[in-house]
C-alpha cells in the first residue's frame, strides 16, 4: 500500500535508490516449477541498460542480477524470488549542485514536500534506474506467460520528438538503438539526437507496445479492468504523460458504426478496441501506446527556487538521457507483462471452473 | 482483489447489475465526524442521471440513494457507509434479441468467455449504470476533501465527435446538457446529436477534468504514483480508451527546455506537468483528459456471431446513449475525487510527522 | 484495509449497525456457476438467530436475507453478491442509560476514544449482530467448498462456564439449544443457565470447530499460514480471547517424540497438529478451539465513568445473551469456512500447475 | 497476497531460505525522518541468534544485517528499507537423509503437496531462520513506536515443558538463556534441557509478551480487530499452536461480574481483557500468551513415508533447537511490535481528525 509493490497475486516489491548500494525486488507469488536462472533475466536487463549507445546516459552500470531466493535446483519453488542488482557507477558529486535546489520538471520539489527529506543522489528513488528491478521481475513473468500461454511482448518507438517513425516491421527493432520498427530512418534519428545533445536539450517520444497470444478473459469487470491496470502500469513509468488502448484518442472522432469490432466465426474483423472489451481481454493483440515527456535534466538554465524559497537558476550537468523515451521500450513491455501475469493468476483463482461449450475465436486482424 | 473495490484506505466496494433489484456500494474508511446525509449525495447522482435530456438514454431512473449504515445523528462514525439505489425502470425485454448474440464492441463476448455465464439484461454488470454508486461514494469523498483541504473538482466536454468545443468559462458548464464550458455552441451540439440519433449511430467525446486546491505531496514514489492511480481510475470508466495528464500526448513533440515548469517564490510559472512530478502532487491544479469511444449499442446492423459461433447480424434497439461521453463528466470528476481521497488518507498515515521548515509555494499558473 | 473486509480472493465486506436500518455484506470473488438462492443461506442464519430459546437474547429478528446482485437465473455470475438483512426489532430505548457511560468490558470506551463518536444503539457496530452477514457469506463459501471439495464444517460447545461437556457424537448437536455434542447433559446445562440468568450474571464457554474433507496444500508459507489466518478469523469473533489449533496449549508439556504425527501409506497416524504443518493444510481434519468470555452486558452493577470522566455505576438491562458462547458455534464454523474458501482460491491461482506423481495420503486418524 | 508480506501500511516483505545465499526483507511504509542505522537493528537480531547457548541450535550464524536502501544521511526517507542478511553456515549435507522422506510434524510433506517441489536444505522456506528478517524489521518498528508513543515490548518464558516458571521480575529476563523472568530456577531449567538433549527429544514452551505504553484506539472494529491481527501474527510464528489475549482460556470459567474491567477516573481497575475491548486498544498493557510445540527435528526414530509413499523411518540429525520456544521470545515481541506499528499508521490515516473533549484514562492496573 505504501506504493512500492506491483500486483496482487504476482507481487513485485521494489527497493533501492539510484546511488545507494543496491537496487532490487522481491517477487512473491511466482508459481512453482518454472525453470529459472539469472540467464533468463539478464538479457532483458541488458536491453534496458544505460551506456549502450551515445544517445543515452553514459553511466556505466553492468546491471548484473543475482537471484537470492526462491529457486532450487534450477526451478522456482513457489516462494519469494529476491533479485539483487548492485549499483557500481555512482558519481554522486555530479549532483552536488542540486542538493539545495529543485530542478524544474523533476521530482525534487515534490519529494521534499512529501517527505521533508530527499536523497538527492541521482534522483534517489525517483530515478528511472528503479525500472531495472521491474524489468528483471517482468522477465520472470514473460517466461511463464510464454511457456504457459504463448504470450509475447514487443514494443517500438513510433515517434521521436517531431519525427514520426513509420512502422515497417518488428524485425528491425533489435537492429538500432532506438527500438525503431524501421530500417531506413536510423541515420535521421541519430542526427536528430546528436543535434539535440549539442543543444543541451531533450525531447519526448511515443512508444507502442503490443502483447500477442493473450489469454481470453483476463481483467475484472468493474474497477480492476485489464485496461485500467494497464493504464496504471504505463502511467507509472517515469516521464509518461499519456496512455492509449487500441485507437486511443482517435476514438473521439469515430462513429460507433466504425469503431465496434465485428465478430465472425473466424475471429474478430478488426481491433479498434485494442484487445479489451468491458475491461476483459478478447484474445486479440493488446495494443497500447504511451507518451513520454522530454527529460528535465538538461544543461539549459531554468529558473527555480532553493530550499529557502529564494529564486535561483538551475543547470543540470552529469550523465542523463536526452530522450528517456529511447530506453522506455523494454520498460513498457515489462509493465505490460506484469499486468498480464497478475491477471492470469487472478483468472485461475476465480474462473478455473469455467468450461465453455464452444471453441474460442480469438485472434487479431492483420 | 476480484476487482469491485476501489481504493486502499477509502475503500469503495461496488455491487449490482443494470437490471437487477438494486445497485450500491459500501464505503469503508471514511473518517468519523463528517456531517453527512442523503442530501449531500443526491445532487451528484442527479448530474449523472439518465433521462435528463433528449441526448441521453430515456431510461427513467430516479436514482434515489439510501444510507444504510455508518452515520449516526447526522455524522459519519468511522464505520462502513452502505449506499443503496434501487433499480426501478428495468425493461429487460428490450434486450431479448441479444441474449444469444454478442454485440460488436460490447463486453458481451468477453463476459461470456471469462465467466461462462452472463447477465444480459441491460449489459448486466458491464453497464455504465454501475457508475452511479461510484458517483455516490465520490460525493462523500468530495465533501470531506472540500471541507478539510478546500479541494474541488470540475470537468467539461472539450470535444464531441469531430467538433472541438472551445473553453470559454467554467460558469457555462451547468447551463447545458453537454457539460460544455461554452455558451455559444450549444445549438450546434444539439443539431449534431439529433442528426446522429436519426442516423442510428453514435460518437465519441473528449472530457477534461481538473482538481483545484490539491494538497501537496499526495502519491507514492514508485508504483502507486498519483498519476498512475488517476490513469487507472479514468481508464476504468466505461468506454474510455485514452488518458492524459497535463500536456499528455503533446509532450512527444516538446523540448525539455519548454516542458519543465519553472519555479519561483510565487509559485510554479506553468503547469505542463498537470500537477504531478515524480508521481507526487505539486499543489497545482491536477489536469486530466480522457477519450471516450462511441457506444456500441447502435441501430446500425453489424456482423457478429451467436453462442454457437454461427454468423449473425446484430442491431441494438432499446434505450441507449448515442454519446456516452455526455454523461461521463460527473463520472470522471468522481473518479478523480476518489483517487485524491484515498491518497490524502495514505499521506496522513505515512507523513503525518513531516514538518517542513519553510512555507509552501503551490498554486497553478493562470 | 479499514477493517470491514474479510479475505483476499473471496472478499466479504460487511456493513451495518445493530440498530440501524439494515446490515449486510458484499461478497466479491465468488466463482461463477454456483447454483445459489436465498434458500441456501437462510438456514445458516436461522441457526445463529436470536430468540430461539430462553437461554439467548429475546430480541426477535427474523434475519431474512435478500440477494441483491451477482446471481442470474439461479447461478452466480462471478460478480459481487450483495446480501441485505433488514433490522426489524430495534428497541433503542433499552439502551438509553448507556449513552453517556461506558459499560465495563464493552467496546463503548474504545469506540469513543478511537472515533470520538459512537453509535450507542445496541452496541452499534461492535454488536455481535454483525456476525449475521458473516454467517450469510459463509453459507455461500460452504456450499462451494462442499460441492467442489466435499469440505464440511461442524462445531460444538465443549464447556459451559465450569461445566465440561463430554463429546458423545456429532448427531446430538442439532438437538439442543447449546450445540452440545452430548445428549444426557442438556438438563444440567439448562439449569445452569437458568441460575445464571436469575443471578443477573453471565458466563464463558469453549467451542470446538472442525473442518472435514479439507484440500491438501492450503495456506501460505510465511505470514499467511493457514493456521495464522484461522487464528485471525477466530479471534475476530466477538468475545473470543483464545484460539487453539490441534493440541493447542496442550503442546507446552508435550514431547516431540509424542507430538509429531507419524505418516504411513494409509495416512497420518494421529492429528496432534490439527491438520496444519508449516502453515499448510495436511488434508486431515482441521481442529480449532476457542475461548469465549462472559458477556459484559449484565444486570450486576459495576463501577465505571461517564463521558466527563466522573465515576458512575452501570447496570445493563435490555435483551442480552447471558452466554454469548451459545450462539457462537455457527459463527465459528462460518469463520473457518471463509478462511478455507479464500485459501482454496489462492491455491488455484498459485499452484494450479502442480501435478504430483503420486497419490495423496490425507485423512484424519479416528 | 501470496503470503510473504506482513502488514498493510508498514509492509514487511520477507524472502529467503534457510540454506540459500541470503535472507532478508523489504520494509515499505516506514515514515520518513526516523534516525536509523544497522546499530538499531543488530541487537534484536543478536537476541534471536542461534548458537548463543548450549540449549539452542549450534548453527553459527552471525546474522549481520545490511541496510540496502531507504536511509539517507542516517535518517529514513520514507522509501523502502531493504535489509539483507547473508547466510554463512549452511551445511546442507546434514540434511541429506531427509531429501526423499517427510519428517513427522514437519512441513516437508505439506510443502511437497502444495508446490510439487521443495527446498529441503534446512527446511528451506519453512525454517524458523526466516524469523530473522521479521525481527530485523520489527526493530525499526520498535524504534519508531518507542520514540513516538513510548511503546515498549517485553516477553518471557513462563513454562518450559512441564515446568512452570513463576514470574519474579522483568529484570531477570536478560540474565539467562531462557528469557525467564525468574532468577532462582535457571539451574533447574538447564538440567531439564540437558536431560532432554541427551534423550534426543524436544519439548514445548509457553511464552508471555506484553506491550506497554500502547496508544488508545488502535484496531479496526469488525474483521481487523487488534486482537485478531495479534492472533494472526502470533499463530504465524513457527511451531505456535495457541494464542491467548488477556485471561485467554481462563475466561471460559469466569463470570461476567468478575471479568468486565471496571473503569474509574484514575484508569481501569483490572486488565482481564488484556488491553483490548471490541478489537480496539484500551491503552492498558497488551497481554498475549502463546503455546509452542516441541520441535519435530529429533533423533528419536519415527515412522514416515518416502516420496513413493513407501513406509520408512526417519531420524533427524543435524543442528536443531530441542526447544524452539527458547528463542521464540524475541520473535513474539517482534510480531507484536509489527502489529502495533501497522495499526498506529492505520489509525493516523483514519482518525487523525479525532479530537476528544476530555482527557484519557488509560493505564494498566498493577
**Estimated share of beta-strand residues of chain A:** 15-25%
Mean pLDDT of chain A: 91
CATH class of chain A: Alpha Beta
- Order of strands side by side in the largest beta sheet of chain A? 1-2-3-7-4
- The level of helicity of chain A is 10-25%
Which chains have the largest interface? A-B, 125 and 126 residues
Order of helices and strands of chain A: EEEHEEEEHHEEHEHEHEEEEEEEH
Rg of chain A to the nearest angstrom? 21 Å
Assign an overall shape of chain A. globular
How would the blueprint of this fold be written?
The structure is a homotetramer of 366-residue chains.
Chain A: E1 5-6, E2 11-16, E3 22-28, H1 38-48, E4 65-67, E5 71-72, E6 75-76, E7 81-86, H2 108-115, H3 131-149, E8 152-160, E9 163-164, H4 186-198, E10 205-212, H5 226-235, E11 240-245, H6 256-259, E12 263-264, E13 267-268, E14 276-277, E15 280-281, E16 286-292, E17 302-305, E18 311-314, H7 328-351
Antiparallel strand pairs in A: 1-2, 2-3, 3-7, 4-7, 5-6, 8-9, 8-10, 10-16, 11-16, 12-13, 14-15, 17-18
Helix pairs in contact in A: 1-3, 3-7, 5-7
Amino acid at each position: 500500500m505504501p506504493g512500492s509493490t506491483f500486483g496482487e497475486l504476482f507481487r513485485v516489491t521494489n527497493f533501492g535508490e539510484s546511488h545507494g548500494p543496491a537496487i532490487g525486488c522481491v517477487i512473491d507469488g511466482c508459481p512453482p516449477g518454472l525453470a529459472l536462472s539469472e540467464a533468463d533475466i539478464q538479457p532483458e536487463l541488458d536491453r534496458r541498460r544505460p551506456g549502450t549507445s551515445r544517445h543515452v546516459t553514459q553511466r556505466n552500470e553492468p546491471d548484473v542480477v543475482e537471484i537470492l531466493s526462491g529457486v532450487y535446483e534450477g526451478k522456482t519453488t513457489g516462494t519469494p524470488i529476491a533479485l539483487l542488482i548492485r549499483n557500481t557507477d555512482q558519481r554522486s558529486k555530479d549532483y552536488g549542485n542540486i542538493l539545495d535546489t529543485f530542478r524544474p520538471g523533476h521530482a525534487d520539489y515534490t519529494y521534499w514536500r512529501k517527505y521533508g527529506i530527499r536523497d538527492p543522489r541521482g534522483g534517489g528513488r525517483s530515478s528511472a534506474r528503479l525500472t531495472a528491478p521491474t524489468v528483471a521481475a517482468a522477465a520472470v513473468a514473460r517466461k511463464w506467460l510464454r511457456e504457459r500461454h504463448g504470450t509475447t511482448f514487443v514494443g517500438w518507438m513510433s515517434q521521436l520528438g517531431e519525427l514520426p517513425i513509420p512502422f515497417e516491421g518488428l524485425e528491425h527493432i533489435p537492429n538500432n538503438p532506438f527500438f525503431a520498427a524501421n530500417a531506413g530512418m536510423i541515420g535521421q534519428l541519430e542526427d536528430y539526437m546528436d543535434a539535440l545533445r549539442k543543444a543541451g536539450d531533450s525531447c519526448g517520444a511515443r512508444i507502442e507496445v503490443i502483447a500477442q497470444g493473450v489469454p481470453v478473459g483476463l481483467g475484472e469487470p468493474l474497477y480492476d479492468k485489464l485496461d485500467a491496470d494497464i493504464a496504471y502500469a504505463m502511467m507509472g513509468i517515469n516521464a509518461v504523460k499519456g496512455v492509449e488502448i487500441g485507437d486511443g484518442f482517435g476514438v473521439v472522432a469515430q462513429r460507433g458504426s466504425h469503431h465496434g469490432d465485428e465478430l465472425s466465426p473466424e475471429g474478430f474483423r478488426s481491433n479498434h478496441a485494442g484487445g479489451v472489451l468491458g475491461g476483459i481481454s478478447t484474445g486479440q493483440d493488446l495494443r497500447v501506446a504511451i507518451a513520454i515527456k522530454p527529460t528535465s535534466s538538461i544543461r539549459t538554465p531554468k529558473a527555480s527556487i532553493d530550499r529557502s524559497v529564494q529564486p535561483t537558476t538551475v543547470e543540470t550537468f552529469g550523465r542523463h538521457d536526452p530522450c528517456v523515451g529511447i530506453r522506455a521500450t523494454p520498460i513498457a513491455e515489462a509493465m505490460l507483462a506484469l499486468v498480464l501475469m497478475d491477471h492470469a493468476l487472478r483468472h485461475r483463482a476465480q474462473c478455473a471452473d469455467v468450461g465453455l461449450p464452444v471453441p474460442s475465436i480469438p485472434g487479431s486482424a492483420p
